[in-house]
Amino acid sequence: MPGYIIVGMQWGDEGKGKTVDFLTKKADIVARYQGGNNAGHTVVVNDQETVLHLIPCGILHPDAQCIIGNGTVIDPAVLIQELDDLAKADCEVKGRLHISEAAHIIMPYHKVLDGAQEEARGENKIGTTNRGIGPCYADKADRFGIRFGDMIEPEAFKQKVKGVLDFKNTILTKAFGKEALDYDAIIEDYSRYADRLREYTADTTLMLHKAQQAGQNIVYEGAQGAMLDIDHGTFPYVTSSTTMSGGVFSGAGIAPNSIDGVIGIMKAYCTRVGEGPFVTELHCETGEALRAAGHEFGATTGRPRRCGWLDMVQIRRAVNICGITSFVLTKGDVLGIFDTIKICTAYEINGEVTDEFPTRLAHIESAKPIYEEFPGWASDISDCSSWEELPENTQKYIETIERLSGVPVSIVSVGPGREQTIARNNPFGD
Fold it and tell me: Shortest CA distance to 369 belongs to which of 418, 430, 308?
């Protein structure tokens, strides 16, 4: 029963969508286990770009079953829009998409609270996407949450909304000076959503257990990246869910002994969206060149991403907390514009050199990168189809990453297209 977790190694945007799409050729089920529509996964097939925020990227393979697990928070309106977009692209979803009854749903007050709280932070803003993700997870922990199974039961849904809305409206009006939300309008909208989505609801944990017993291949698709983890990321500049590999066990309802490996997706350089420390960030023409060459703009927000050299201090921490067994290296083709390339191998913090990633925010913010410089390949590698075709300096760069991390690079992406992928070792076999 091969099962592999896909997890981002940095601050998200590493290319997880393309990797999931590639692995789904050999997978029976793809299961999304955390996050919400604050994440966007982009897949390019036959020059056609598809951006998915909630539905697993495996949906583009007609034989794959796709699951949205209980650890994901769902905006029903966004999900319906994705279904409509897939229908326009002639991608058949019915019978292949299954949504956990236990997944929490994003309500209108979550979005308003998200924006109001971010505004109230002022200079200390986090850089939230204002999509209600954090407040929805907060309600889940506070036992105010409303789940997908509640939404499709009309009377139960009405009672739950009635029990929460007065409290939320008091906060919105008294604490933030916002307008109260209308109960009848919410019920009308969400009743429509329920009618459209009811057929997709399932006990997805039971589905996964049966698939494991049947020996099916399963890919567990994570969102964001390890350094945005609510516990182990650069808190408070993080997301509201568990983005490291351990999140799959609660977010999909599976056991640790059902996993065969954890595949870390890593850019050949580093990017970050929003606020928060970023040790190798480049505030210069080189950073601008990386952004332009890599088309570094958020799939969800359109915001320009901050860019910098690869940080192996940070990568090693991600390897340790996620238990990475192999890497997928993406966007190596972008580095083809440079004659020389740098990798951060250590930090200087308060005059002391360390190769360990600190947990204290003040230490991360004050850290200075210590670089090793490598010769670039100054050429286009997007047409390379095998390891042997890659330039020698590209191979050496990848081998350096393996040496510094202690983890093999099993797959190399040399462009956005599905076919622009070099598989040195496919976990599901050749």
Answer: 308
Predicted model pTM: 0.93
How far does the chain reach from its first CA to its final CA, in angstroms?
17
Tens-place pLDDT, residues 230-271? 999 999 999 999 999 999 999 999 999 999 999 999 999 999
Name residue 65's amino acid: Q
User: CB-based contacts of 5: which residues, under 8 Å, 6+ apart?
Assistant: 220, 222, 245, 248, 259, 261, 262, 263, 322
3-state secondary structure of 282: coil
Residues annotated as part of the active site: 13, 41
**Quick check: 430 pLDDT over 70?**
no
Separation of alpha carbons 156 and 164, rounded Å: 13
Separation CA 103–CA 165 (nearest Å): 20
Is residue 344 within 8 Å of residue 309, measured between CB atoms? yes
Describe the chain by its helix, strand, coil percentages, rounded to 5.
Answer: 40, 20, 40
Q: How many residues does the structure list for the chain?
A: 430
d(Cα 281, Cα 308) in Å, to the nearest integer?
Answer: 4
Structural domains of the chain ordered from first start: 3-100+201-261 (3.40.440.10), 104-197 (1.10.300.10), 266-423 (3.90.170.10)
Q: Which two tokens stand for residue 255?
A: 């056991």
Span 267-302, pLDDT tens digits: 999 999 989 999 999 999 999 999 999 999 876 667
Distance CA 414, CA 398 (A): 13
pLDDT value at residue 418: 84
Q: Nearest CA to 133 among 203, 218, 54?
A: 54
**Strand ranges inside 246-402, DSSP E:** 261-267, 270-272, 306-308, 310-311, 326-330, 340-349, 352-354, 368-375
Q: Please tell me the distance from the alpha carbon of residue 152 to that of residue 148, in angstroms, as a whole number.
A: 7
Respond yes or no on whether the N-terminal peptide bond of residue 236 is cis (omega within 30° of 0).
yes
